[in-house]
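User: quick one - fold this with magnesium ion bound?
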Amino acid sequence: MEKIKMTTPLVEMDGDEMTRILWKMIKEELLLPFIDLKTEYYDLGLEHRNETNDQVTVDSAEATKKYGVAVKCATITPNAARMTEYNLKEMWKSPNGTIRAMLDGTVFRTPIIVKGIEPCVKNWVKPITLARHAYGDVYKNAEIKIPGAGKAELVFTAEDGTETRELIHNFKGAGIIQGMHNTVDSISSFARACLNYAVDTKQDIWFATKDTISKKYDHTFKDIFQEIYDKEYKEKFEALGIEYFYTLIDDAVARVMKAKGGFIWACKNYDGDVMSDMVSSAFGSLAMMTSVLVSPTGVYEYEAAHGTVQRHYYKHLKGEETSTNSVATIFAWTGALRKRGELDGNDSLMAFADRLEKATIDTIEAGEMTKDLALITSLENVKVLNSEQFIQAIRSRLEA
Ligand code: NAP
Ligand code: MG
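Assistant: Sure. Structure tokens for the protein plus magnesium ion:
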């Protein structure tokens, strides 16, 4: 069989632990036999990040800006324990954080739906994609514990020295205060990334804040979204027959529970933090969740939403058998290959991405799956496969 040709390389970001093992297996079993795979390889494994003083992460993000599409393996975010385990020179920052900041990107998480792994919410028949604004609000706050009576004010000092003041509260006794901020630039980038992604995936997009209570702060989010939508996206949305829908956050939560899915839910930072964990656990499993970072200029980085599956890796190192789910990592590759195909007008590459996804889903629906899914499936007579066997089962369907 002739291998599928590629014209532009994908930016390949290798990673750590169990997902690094899966990465190699996926390439050898599911990609290299079928595609003349062109990648520009960056080793974001912790050892190599440490050797390069994390320059490799910066280089990989630059390459992503240059080529437009990247695929990333899960990576360790160092903590104190990793400092000793890997003998690190510094506690390097999270690669995802570095890449997100360099691309000014928004993360979209989408569950992979298969028969036999039913969401807790029965009416969710299509995926709900969650987009979280990743800057500011309570995550960049300033807080004070007020010991006793006194006046708390918000003060803004302009560059020319002019002050604007707003009374927060006249305290009669002890209390607490908090100051938050966001920027028009960051909110605008978030709005554009969300609206672009809606156009790209031809899905409706919902956005919600508490603008009735927060008449300046939250209302600014609402206004920026509406203004950018009206000026830059309205026509495209109407041509595609998709909708931008704004409502209050409590109304959005109530509607999401009753909805069928098949839309993007854009959330402010805190709402996204809370709701993404609710939505992903209700859909079944972190191992069945994909994630894509999209920049406002239309650069894409695909990955799995889960981490490096450390516990399985330590078993693997001891020579014990693992049954680690590779679905989200496979879908990171198919997402990136499809996008590359789309940008290059490479239909066979796009068709291959579809075939690989179908082979993966068919494998699970035929009752062949890893242990994490076997524990939650409604299918009967399930065959539990180890990490290699699952990938081989997909390969035989792909070859058929
Ligand atoms: P994790 O790797 O997501 O795994 C947590 C647990 O979830 C696992 O122990 C496993 O449960 C289950 N799980 C996750 N993915 C699975 C899969 N593909 N197949 C089967 N089970 C799966 O999170 P972690 O162990 O807390 O973090 C490990 C490392 O990953 C950390 O160093 C962290 O910094 C990093 N991390 C990276 C990213 C990223 O690069 N995007 C994201 C999150 C975390 P059982 O053990 O019960 O089987
Ligand atoms: Mg959270």
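One thing worth noting: The chain has 14 helices and 16 strands.
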